[in-house]
Amino acid sequence: MLAAASLLLLAGCATRPVNPPIIRYDPEQLSPFDRLEGSRGGRQDMIVLAFSGGGMRAAAFSYGTLETLQRIEVTTTSGKKVRLLDEVDLITGVSGGSFTALAYGLYGEHLFDFYEDRFLKRDVQGQLIARILNPANWPALASARWSRSEIAAKLYDEVLFNNATFAELEQKGGPMIAVSATELTTGSRIVFLKQNFDVMCADLGPVKLSRAVAASSAVPVVLAPITINNYGGTCGYQEPEWSHALAKSGRVQRSASRILNRLADLREIVDATQNPYFHLVDGGVSDNLGLRGVLDFIGTFEALHEGGQPAPLDNVRRLIIFVVNAASSPSTSWNRSERPPGAIRTLVQAVGVPIDRFSSESIELMRDIKARWALMRQIRNSEALKENRDPALAQAVEAPDTDIHVVDVSFDALADKAERDYLNQLPTSLALPAEAIDRLRSAAGTIILASSEFQAALGNAGVRMIDLPETAKVKSDVVPVESGKAPEK
């Protein structure tokens, strides 16, 4: 009886962390564009990394990308030698890719000292299952205010994030990190950035990174949604002035439509009287490449540029976007049998196929923008247009002076068929053999260095690879930890 009473008491005590509200919104604060520009220091190149979902497969593949950029040194037009990793301005992450994105944002260079052993080659999935199946956790799981994903967030803190919050991440001063999840009711993207939480009148600062990762990787059915509080309409939030200008300007409706639709999407769900809670699941459901946010950013820039307003890419001449896509396409023999696959396999395939198809279209849309800008600049600079003084025509072909390079880092870009087949057979889980982790990391480097788009982006930048022997590694102030103990910062 005493044991039963104790378990009931534990169940009553189990409750999720509650994200606090903003008391009063500050309209004078820096916009995300201003913060991004301030950290760039006026550089004319901008590098964006988009890390896809795919469990530990995606975490390792995106980590291999960071390792590769760490080793690539280029010479700028002024003769300065810089590593490409130091030039990264923005990293987006979804599901498995969100682990690497947030961990790099938090630890920076120190990540290379421990991420492989502490996380990538750890049986995170086995540890999570063991905790869920532990009878000591059953009373808490029976509570409406606790779930499997809250157990996952606690584990992620112990093995990787050490209870770090977004306020701590903001203080690091590294690239902007944007991880996303999917709001279950509407399918809207919820991005863990301050401006998105401002719309909800919610304070992102105290939110733990582990809960953001747990939300971004909460595969429906397998893991429970992560619940956050919505306080929309209670803090005096005001939409940015530039959004009103875009809505009123007929000239920019084409390029502005995407970002205006995104704002309308958020506006629709943030009324706290109607939606006091949001239930977040895997970000891959709405954006498996982490690329939709990049498209929003570029769409906003283009619309502001057409409207004659200051825009975040005005000084950028070269935008390099690495789309690190860990989506796999394992072969099956289903079409050779009259008997259809079982319920679980059908469910997984029904979810995965649309996500992968949607992801491919995001890449093509990015390439379409690149081609359109290049064509408009060509027409703008042509002799024929110089002879035509129609201002309306000149305005119609006005385009940013930014060259976009989309570097496809995916298994399909790997020339070695045997290696490509091996990687495509890796499952989407949070545990992979050490050999698979190493081959994923190596594949990322091979693909990037062989990419014709990457070579075109760098042009005559004087590329060379830096040797990183063990003795030359940056020493970390993070020490190895035993399983279940929080890492030291």
Describe the protein in words.
With 489 residues, the chain is α/β, with parallel strands linked by helices. 48% of the residues lie in helices and 12% in strands. It has 21 helices and 11 strands. It has helices at 2-13, 32-40, 55-71, 96-107, 111-120, 124-133, 138-142, 148-161, 166-171, 194-199, 209-216, 241-248, 253-269, 284-287, 292-306, 343-380, 383-387, 391-396, 417-424, 434-450, 452-458; strands at 45-51, 72-75, 81-83, 88-94, 176-183, 189-191, 226-229, 277-281, 318-325, 403-410, 464-465. Strands 1, 4, 5, 6, 7, 8, 9 and 10 form an 8-stranded mixed beta sheet that branches. Helix 3 packs across helix 20, helix 4 packs antiparallel against helix 11 (209-216) and helix 6 (124-133) crosses helix 8 (148-161). Residues 469-486 have low confidence and may be disordered.
Keywords:
489 residues, alpha/beta, 8-stranded mixed β-sheet, 11 strands
User: Counting H and I runs of at least 4 residues, what is the number of helices?
Assistant: 21
By helix and strand content, what is the structural category?
alpha/beta
State the separation between the terminal residues, measured CA to CA: 43 Å
Count of DSSP E strands?
A: 11
Q: List segments where confidence is low: pLDDT < 50 over at least 5 consecutive residues.
A: 469-486
Major sheet, described briefly?
8 strands, mixed
What amount of the residues lies in strands? 5-15%
**Which whole number gives the mean pLDDT?**
81
Overall, the morphology is globular
Rg, nearest Å: 23 Å
Regarding quaternary structure, how should these chains be classified?
Answer: single chain
Helix fraction, binned, reads 40-55%
